[in-house]
Amino acid sequence: MDEKSFSGVELSPWLVRQCATIGVRSPTAIQAHCIPQILAGRDCIGAAKTGSGKTLAFALPILQKLSEDPYGIFALVLTPTRELAFQIADQFAVIGKVVNLRHCVVVGGMDMVAQGKELARKPHIVVATPGRLADHLESCNTFNFTKLRFLVLDEADRLLGGSFDEQIKTIFQNLPKKRQNLFFSATITDTLEKLKCVTGSEVFFYEAPTEVATVEQLEQNYVLCPKDVKDAYLVETIRTYRGQNKGGNILIFTNTCKNCQVLSMTLNEVGFENVALHAMMKQQQRLAALAKFKSNTIKILLATDVASRGLDIPTVELVINHNIPKIPKEYIHRVGRTARAGRNGRAISLVTPYDIKLLQTIEQHINTKLTEFKLDDSEVGKIFTQISVTKSEAYIKLDEQDFYERKMINKRKKWMMEGLDPDEEEEKFLKTIKRSKKTKKNKKQKDQ
Ligand code: ADP
Ligand code: MG
Hints:
The protein is an alpha/beta fold.
């Protein structure tokens, strides 16, 4: 962290005081460089490593300008994931408390009508994922962005990387031409030209100078394992790490929702209590899982790449890659969930012989060599059968649940066609099932 105090970046005293309440006393490099330029009215593209304080680099100048002239929806912040949207909104809320900041989070999986109403009340700051915001813009006219002063794309390279193109286009069509654009990410270079097309010609570009793309305090390891024994190696990795480090939280990344769910069930079954976070879960469950992990109630989180960008959970001391990401920069984001804001952290990637090439590409990209995390192979041999049986059982359980869900979708369709309320009917249906299960159980007990 830079030793300069915030007075050097010309922030209002109330903002400096608010920062102090959350332990932020001097600006990080990206904050020291970008805040004055943003306050001076320039567009800004900021690139700095994970955990280096990019959120406050845009939130502080926006809050300062907002406090000078609050009018209409003042700033729109777009992020690629829902959980990140809530996190950014929280940061704005904490700092903006003293100026009665009104904010609104607009993400999928939450009540659209309630969101529509909140938007109509002209919040100062809207934090949104592109899909849901585009839906609102296409379906209602109770709000507009005509007074918008700031557009922020956090994780800008992800947002402009292709998969959000349609929604971003809809959103941009609804924004005033005259506005300040602020784009941030840890990995921005591959979309730089695209970003510059959206900004004005006077854009301020800041990239933190560095040889290595990951942070210094991060220890990076690999565990070499045969493909079929990977899950046993995962368990042994957790056991070995826990032997050396009792306290820290562990975040495990895997590639698909199904894998994530099955691994989560398997680990729970063998005594590693954990929660899962993936896109097949309902949003309320996603938020509940994350809350348990953040509050330290549960110390292991199994996630897909929905958790790879932006999440700031200081207690995460270990990131495990159950699969090696195919794109090197996604590796940077995943391992960037630990060793944040100057803390230490470790990342361990499980590597099969098929992954060696991918590993080398990542090593070249980050300009660092991973070292081996030593495990006792004979211990893996002892747990292998137990883990693979438990995992097969988890698969069977999941398929049964899947089957049940598919059946429920068909039932709901039928109820709708019949003009019935599907929610009410589902509730009734579930009650009857519960009752019949109870009678069966009672009967069984009587029979015994
Ligand atoms: P990034 O977006 O660069 O990955 P974040 O904005 O999420 O990083 O910040 C990471 C952590 O650092 C957060 O917990 C934040 O509160 C903290 N932080 C931000 N700026 C400072 C600062 N100037 N001094 C101390 N801690 C800071
Ligand atoms: Mg961030």
